[in-house]
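wait is this the right file?? whatever heres the structure
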């Protein structure tokens, strides 16, 4: 039987590419999303991947959602915590809501989701948890203290889950992408894109979603079983760590 992979925010952008790549690699894939039914239904029709709608920032919704996925697709062997949002503002102008929404979606979600699948993985003696962090969680970035705090938190979470579950056949790793060509960047003004983003990427271009998804399939494989607690930086040379 094929292993089951669950990808949060798996219907668009980086997550959409991850869902498709895992399906192509032979996994039974389930993808979640938050509210964009049009994009999710289009993705489902095009790929045949079942989609599930819930808010990954809501613990009870994650509990119920994972039960639904496991009933329909099977016990989760690979969890990709990918869903994320931005709500940018400099700290002196940031509202509590901007702070809290970003922490909830990008960091609380890691606990909310991983907590649902970890015991099953431990019982079965196999698991792969892959958390999508960000270059900005590694280096900091003006204007997005909420996002940087959440994404840095993802890295600490990753290392701890790796340590706690290392003897149970479970690996937990993070990917820290640089700037990737998705809707998440749609609101970045052109001047900032050129002068503050592209000018700082040694390879001179944004990343493409497939350049992230191929690294997820790599980490999900049996052959990656000795990699745990790592952060894979994929950023066009922008931040070398
Ligand atoms: P997109 O905005 O293109 O897609 C986001 C996906 O996450 C969508 O499927 C969306 O669902 C889902 N989502 C958002 N909020 C929630 C929620 N509360 N509950 C469930 N699902 C949710 O984002 P990207 O593909 O660009 O980003 C994916 C990940 O990569 C994020 O964690 C992001 O922080 C990270 N990242 C992105 C970078 C980039 O340059 N693009 C750089 C570094 C990291 P719906 O379609 O319903 O809205």
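ok assuming it is, sequence goes like this
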């Amino acid at each position: 039987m094929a292993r089951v992979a669950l990808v949060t925010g798996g219907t668009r952008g980086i997550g959409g590419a991850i869902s498709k790549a895992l399906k192509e690699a032979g996994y039974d894939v389930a993808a979640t999303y938050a509210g964009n039914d049009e994009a999710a239904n289009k993705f489902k029709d095009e790929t045949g991947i079942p989609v599930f709608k819930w808010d990954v920032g809501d613990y009870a919704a994650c509990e119920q959602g994972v039960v639904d996925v496991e009933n329909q697709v099977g016990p989760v062997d690979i969890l990709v915590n990918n869903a994320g949002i931005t709500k940018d503002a400099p700290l002196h102008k940031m509202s509590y809501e901007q702070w809290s929404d970003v922490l909830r979606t990008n960091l609380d979600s890691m606990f909310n989701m991983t907590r649902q699948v970890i015991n099953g993985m431990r019982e079965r003696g196999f698991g792969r948890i892959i958390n999508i962090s960000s270059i900005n969680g590694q280096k900091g970035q003006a204007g997005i203290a909420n996002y940087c705090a959440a994404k840095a938190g993802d890295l600490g979470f990753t290392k701890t889950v790796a340590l706690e579950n290392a003897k149970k056949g479970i690996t937990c790793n993070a990917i820290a992408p640089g700037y990737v060509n998705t809707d998440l960047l749609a609101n970045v003004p052109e001047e900032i894109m050129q002068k503050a983003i592209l000018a700082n990427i040694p390879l001179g271009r944004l990343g493409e979603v497939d350049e992230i998804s191929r690294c997820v399939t790599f980490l999900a494989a049996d052959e990656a079983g000795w990699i745990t607690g790592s952060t894979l930086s994929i950023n066009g040379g922008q931040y070398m760590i």
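The chain has one domain: 4-234. so i think its the right one actually
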